[in-house]
Amino acid sequence: MGWWKKTDFWIALILFIISMIGFARGNEAIADPGQDVDPRLAWLYLLAAVIMLVNGILSHRQHLRELKAQKAQQIPETSPQRR
Question: pTM score, two decimals?
Fold first, then answer.
């Protein structure tokens, strides 16, 4: 599976875009309606994006390790042992 198919990376991208909108237009632009505007809101979205990115990287590496181990078990020995 390609890394672009993992939702963790897409969520990280969306959170990053939201944080950039917050930095460019102010935290009022990304606050939920009725929510008190936190001055750190854009930073919190950026932090969430980094966490999701790290989660995606670790998850993808684990997936690649499992695939490698699975392929190693499926490959039969090509040279038969002679007695």
Answer: 0.76
> Which residue range(s) make up the domain with 65?
3-71
CA distances from 4 to 25, 52, 74 (A): 29, 14, 26
Task: Decide if 19 is inside a domain.
Answer: yes
d(CA 50, CA 16): 8
pLDDT in tens, 17-27: 999 999 999 99
Q: What is the pLDDT of residues 35-50, one digit of tens each?
A: 888 999 999 999 999 9
Residue 8 belongs to a domain: yes
Give the integer Cα–Cα distance in Å for 39 and 30: 11
Domains of the chain: total: 1
